[in-house]
Amino acid sequence: MTQPLIGITTYRSHNEYSLPINAIAEAYIKAIANAGGIPVLIPLGLSEEKLDDLVQRLDGILFTGGGDIQPERYGGQAHQRIYGVDHDRDRTEWHLVQAVVAGEQPFLGICRGFQVLNAALGGSLYEDIGDQKADAIKHDYFPDYPRSFLSHSVQVQPESRLGSILGEADLRVNSLHHQGVRQVPAVLKPTAYAPDGLVEAVELPEHIFGIAVQWHPEWLQEHEPMRALFQAFVQLAGGK
């Protein structure tokens, strides 16, 4: 049986020799591979034409975590805590979101990927949750905590697709973000919430597989529900 090709979005950085590289945390790669997929890193800098060609050859796309999105893209404003903005990554992922939505391509979004999906489809973000959301709990458990640290609970809608995959309506997750979803666009359905009411997951109704979560399940692979999320994504991508 041919294993599905899963594209994984990347970020731009520099190696120890100060040479520019495209990279992504190995945890994403292992999670996809362990779920039965073949990881394919999607480089930055490709034209929209080349991205469209690549999407047609992939069986699914994983939108990964990373730096913040340019605020102007979602009608936001500058904030002193915004970091890691890469205009080309924003451009690339915006185009990929439109492509997978229009082309019924299976996709999974994580952290930044969750925020990119929300913003690219017309939603907005908190530039900094702690500064802008009343009664917010702590969400930015980085960099001084283990990435597998279960920092707070999330309530998952049991009737949602995510709920059926995870098999639990109340579970604890890690939390590695200072930004979050402020307004969800009408096209998306919120399916999980943090204790302070912050949206922690969304789905694209009627899509073959369109789910995004704010937490980082790739760092929680010792937990069966988090493995199940990757398995459901990869299996669906392989059978599309």
How would you explain this protein's 3D organization?
The protein has 240 residues and is of the alpha/beta class. The protein has one domain (5-238): 3-Layer(aba) Sandwich (Rossmann fold). Helix content is 29%, strand content 23%. Strand 12 and strand 13 (210-213) form a beta hairpin. It contains seven helices and 13 strands. Helix 2 (48-57) crosses helix 3 and helix 3 crosses helix 4 (112-120). A nine-stranded mixed beta sheet has the order 4-1-5-6-13-12-11-8-9, with helices on both faces. The two termini are 14 Å apart.
Question: Brief description of this entry?
Answer:
This protein is α/β, with parallel strands linked by helices and 240 residues long. It has helices spanning 26-34, 48-57, 87-102, 112-120, 129-132, 161-166, 224-238; strands at 5-9, 11-14, 20-23, 38-42, 60-63, 107-110, 124-126, 152-156, 170-173, 180-183, 189-193, 199-203, 210-213.
Topology:
Blueprint: E1 5-9, E2 11-14, E3 20-23, H1 26-34, E4 38-42, H2 48-57, E5 60-63, H3 87-102, E6 107-110, H4 112-120, E7 124-126, H5 129-132, E8 152-156, H6 161-166, E9 170-173, E10 180-183, E11 189-193, E12 199-203, E13 210-213, H7 224-238
Parallel strand pairs: 1-4, 1-5, 5-6, 6-13
Antiparallel strand pairs: 2-3, 7-10, 8-9, 8-11, 11-12, 12-13
